[in-house]
């Protein structure tokens, strides 16, 4: 697939006098963009970390993707100003638990802004892996060292270098069209 790149302005071309509609128009509003983003189907994860005082922090994240196999990197998008992001920045390490289809209540719990950080973990089976909380019943998990953090708009992109991994069997919990979903097709062999 060819990469899309904006061509530089040519002298004398429309827009050369300082106006380029693609670059200079404000674009669609946030509501339209959120409607577009809602059409993305994504796996549901919980990102966990320990804050500077050693207290557990965690949040539900659907904006997570693999970035590289060599070196093993993943990318998580965390809301700017969140307690979990502050904990990730403070310690430079985090865990990601990939939720299984039966873990909707866990996803809702970690997404609830009314729950304090400690309350999010109450009643959720957790084990410690390399000193970090990992959800025991997760489909898979990883522990990552922070490689880079950059702010883009209202979120920070956190690049994690994978240091430990465990992958189990089962089917993932999904987020699509502003709701939790599950796969409706039969599972493939081995999954």
TrEMBL record:
GO terms for molecular function: FMN binding; riboflavin reductase (NADPH) activity. InterPro entries: Flavin_Rdtase-like_dom, NADH-dep_flavin_reductase, Split_barrel_FMN-bd. This is Oxidoreductase. The lineage of its organism: Bacteria, Bacillati, Actinomycetota, Actinomycetes, Kitasatosporales. Keywords: Oxidoreductase. Pfam families: Flavin_Reduct. Residues 1-22 are annotated as: Disordered. Residues 37-182 form the Flavin reductase like domain. One of its GO terms (biological process) is pyrimidine nucleobase catabolic process. It comes from the Bacteria. Residues 1-18 have a biased composition (Low complexity).
